[in-house]
Amino acid sequence: MPLASLKDLYFDELADLYDAEMQIIRTLPRLAEAARARELREALKKHGDQSRLHLERLDLIFTHWGERPRSRPCVGLAGIVQEADNRLNQEATDDVRDAAIIGSARRMEHYEIAAYSCARGYARQLNRLDEARLLQETLSEEGRTDHCLSDLAEAQIKADAQSEADLYAPPLVAASSEPEIVSRGTATACAVTGDLEVSAVKLSPVIPR
Ligand SMILES: [Fe+2]
Q: Domain 6-168 belongs to what architecture?
């Protein structure tokens, strides 16, 4: 499709995001299944549910223009998914695999954040302010998910560092003969918050341009 106007570019971005969301909906359950940490599994599953809402918001925007939803292969996200699968297929300890999964999921979030930021900007320039607000809702949720994954990664790194310190620390003279139980830190619970509603933004009646 030629990009003859900003509207064309806007639609192209939305179509790219439509396919990106579909890929993410297919991929996140696979990553969640491979993850060991409960908090990570839950965060990935929750974001999978949120991604369905993101798709519905894109549907709403196309409908608002009086158009059918469009999708075009999102090559960028396909590459990130391919890298994620490559890493899942490599032999790794549970902790390292979780760290790799977090890295892959954050790459997906950053792709989406960049693309939704562009789409929101185009919507504003086209004076489609309701659509811009709708895209902002999704953008905020993507941002919260990225922060959540970042928190999980930091908690895991701290736990790993503690484990290594425990492993290489010189043995302490035990005060009693009771065996010392070294508790391994767990990732902080990091809920992906927000109501699972398509949107608080109400789109005005369809006015095709
Ligand atoms: Fe999304």
A: Up-down Bundle (1.20)
